[in-house]
Automatic annotation (TrEMBL):
Protein localization: Nucleus
Stretches assigned to the Methylated-DNA-[protein]-cysteine S-methyltransferase DNA binding domain: 105-181
GO MF annotations, alphabetized: DNA binding; metal ion binding; methylated-DNA-[protein]-cysteine S-methyltransferase activity
Family classification: Belongs to the MGMT family.
Keywords: DNA damage, DNA repair, DNA-binding, Metal-binding, Methyltransferase, Nucleus, Phosphoprotein, Transferase, Zinc
PROSITE patterns attached to this UniProt entry: MGMT
Protein name: Methylated-DNA--protein-cysteine methyltransferase
Primary enzyme class: transferase
The EC number(s) this enzyme carries: 2.1.1.63
Reaction catalysis annotation: a 4-O-methyl-thymidine in DNA + L-cysteinyl-[protein] = a thymidine in DNA + S-methyl-L-cysteinyl-[protein]; a 6-O-methyl-2'-deoxyguanosine in DNA + L-cysteinyl-[protein] = S-methyl-L-cysteinyl-[protein] + a 2'-deoxyguanosine in DNA
Species the sequence originates in: Sterrhoptilus dennistouni
Length: 181
């Protein structure tokens, strides 16, 4: 449960499951913003993981809070019409990690704002962009703790060698996302 800033009362969290070309993506959030996106863990992509596969909400509340509506619309566009993601509003985020001031937050916001669709950046380059050129390892930690993958595109962060590196959703998913872009 996530506490909201006003008086620390718990959010009324809602959950949505989006059926995507890479499997079921679980999204949680409240009226204030998206809490988390959970990617399917997989070692092999489902057969038919093409961007042409429909991307639809398969489970969710009748009344979806606006941040969840925006999140599902953004993800649907990402998988089905990637060129349109730049014109869509990003959902508000409401995860404690993104509320308090920290290097992790700085790295995640830098990644969101500075590394565009189809681009890749090394851990060291992202550390430079976030203002601490010696913090490549800390950037790796920030990527591991990213609560909003795909929208905050941690899959775009690769090793300096050009190797794709690790990913919470697994190597196959990271490589699929990079080639999708």
């Amino acid at each position: 449960q996530v506490n909201s800033k006003q008086g620390g009362s718990p959010c009324k969290e809602k959950h949505v499951v989006l059926l995507s070309p890479v499997g079921k993506i679980q999204i949680s959030g409240c009226e204030t913003g998206v809490h988390e996106i959970k990617l399917p863990k997989m070692s092999v992509l489902p057969s038919g993981a093409e961007s042409s596969v429909a991307c639809e909400v398969c489970e969710g509340p009748e009344e979806m809070p606006q941040p969840l509506q925006q999140c599902t619309a953004w993800l649907r566009a990402y998988f089905c019409e990637p060129a349109t993601t730049g014109t869509l509003p990003l959902p508000a985020f409401h995860h404690p990690l993104l509320q308090r001031d920290s290097f992790t937050r700085q790295v995640l916001w830098t990644l969101l704002n500075d590394v565009k669709f189809g681009e890749a950046v090394s851990y060291k380059q992202l550390a430079d962009l976030a203002g601490n050129s010696r913090a490549a390892r800390a950037v790796g930690g920030a990527m591991r703790s990213n609560p909003i993958p795909i929208i905050i595109p941690c899959h775009r962060v690769i090793r300096s060698s050009g190797d794709s590196g690790n990913y919470g959703g697994g190597q196959q998913l990271k490589e699929w996302l990079l080639s999708h872009e």
